[in-house]
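Sync notes, pocket subgroup
Present: LS, DG
LS reminded everyone that the earlier model was apo-only. Rerun requested with iron/sulfur cluster included. Inputs:
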Amino acid sequence: MSTDDDNSTSETGSPGSTASANTLSTGVEDNGEPVLELENISVEFKEEPLIEQAMPQSIVDRFDLGEDPVQAVSDVSIELGEEDVLVLLGESGSGKTTLGRTAIGIQEPTEGTVKYRGYDVQDVEDGRHSGEIYYEDVRRALQIVHQDSNAALNPYRTIRATLSEPLKLWFPDLDVNDRNERILSMLRTTGVTPAEDYMDRYPHELSGGEQQRVAIIRAMLVEPDVILADEVVSALDVSLRIDIMDLLVDLQEMFSTSYIFISHNLTNARYFAEKTDGKIAVVYLGEIVEIGTPEEVIENPKHPYTQILRWASLPLDPVEARETITEPSPVMTEEAPDPSDPPSGCRFHPSCPKAREACTRENPELVSEEGSPDHLSACFRENSTHEYWQSESIHGEEHEIPER
Ligand code: SF4
């Protein structure tokens, strides 16, 4: 059993002998580069990765991996700046978690590079920037909060021990009183009160919402540049979801943190992106198919997949929701695509009600809409001169996607 004095390594990483994080003001300063830059990232799995084993309905659970590698992420390029928020929205198995984990350096890409403040994370790990930046700086700067906070917190450690650990690791100059003060202050800030009462409780003595708050505090205590919030509100009651998302918004203002917020729920994605002035990237079968502000992506979706996601999201009014459940689905096939053998051309074409012959041959690139340079969609329908418009529908006729 662990004790309060244990110093075992957690997901916050381990401080190397040369780690720079001795005080709360240390770290790699803003050097004008994006905080995170992903260039042409692809991730393939040849065998079941440990992380996916615990994720029901993930890509690797839904398909027999066999000999063929599963491409979880395909040629994705994104940037995240200071205090930026990027919401990754997509169904289970779309590759959004793999993309998020690659962005914070805990999943190695098969192709492409991940840069933290201009430094190639792989080069940093291999010590090629020794003296300028250390891998420990990267590990402190890029944190994660999981969906299942109960599993993420050690059941044998008190809240005091759990939250002292990252402070001991990254800020060894703090004495026990400083650490306790910081922890108490964060517990109060996040609404886990009376804070003194919670210090010596164990995770099972906390509610789900309190556990998630403690998991968020653990990530935030090391003052990271980016937090990957992976479905952090999915397991909570609807009433608590707003509270936790509002808490993340408040903490962003206090700590100037950037977020990659992962959600399969369009309502949560929209709420968080609107509150943080962030962007939503819609992920389908390992590719980003649409990106823009919540007004652009949710109110005025361009890509048929986003339009279907919006159609599939139930209205909040229960009577209206009951009526819409009986509507026929606009998706052309219920058969899930095989990520080890993705469809040719546009990966969405077997399901797309707007698909034409041209879509089976060529994969569309993300292009912006005229007048909205930051709203990009990967669909030939955005190009009025594309051969798409001269080719035949693959479903006999084009089908409408009802609006919500
Ligand atoms: S490119 Fe074709 S198949 Fe792909 S989303 Fe657009 S219309 Fe549908």
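DG: Residues 39 and 77 are 5 Å apart (CA to CA).
LS: The mean pLDDT is 86.
Action: DG to write up.
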